[in-house]
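hiii, so i know i said id send this last week but things got crazy w the move. better late than never?? heres the sequnce for the chain we talked about at the cafe, plus the structure i predicted for it. fair warning i was half asleep when i ran it
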Amino acid sequence: MALSLNIAIYADGADVRDMVAARDAGLVRGFTTNPTLMRKSGISDYESFAREALAATGGMPISFEVFADEFEEMERQAKLIATWGDSVSVKIPVTNTKGASSAELIRRLSAAGVKLNVTAILTLDQVREVVDALHPDTPAIVSVFAGRIADTGRDPVPLMREAKAICSAKPKAELLWASPRELLNIFQADECGCDIITCTNEILKKLAMVGKPLDELSLDTVKMFYNDAAAAGFKL
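okay and structure toks below
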């Protein structure tokens, strides 16, 4: 489907079949996953899944996350994951579980030429710290969890606009709108100047509704209520 958007849509998930379907439909320009999604999909062999996903996505950008909590082990895992292919970005959490900043690890890896996707960012201070740590010659993704910001009752749009301005200090750093909650977020992210948005399969399916006349959608909704009531056998 052709959309008049500058933003790149990446599929977020851990089902290789969904990845293939999104790729074949021409809906996305890349992929992301994480340990939580992988666990929900029943994956137990990390590298085996990653290799299968790499083969299925045919050289399109894809991010895999480290899962250690100590920075030394994160660094070892990151360097290993980076060897899996040129299309791979390594996801590094902005802190470990103790709240210690990953900035120095990000600085070392980026300086070594490892393409990073720094994840779980929610504040502008974190954006500034991450962008400062990135090497100007190494591509990177700065993933701000706009959906989780919205979950707290805050409007993520002004924050994302400022995050984009901060990222402009490093031309090879791309801003990613993470954890969208609805299809509208794609258009909001595009208007903010975000480079990438990650979408679950559920949101990708809604792309077919873009531009649908609202009177048609109203009639479809009325039919759904009527048919479901009939199928349930309701009587008064």
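btw The mean pLDDT is 97. thought thatd interest u
miss u guys!!
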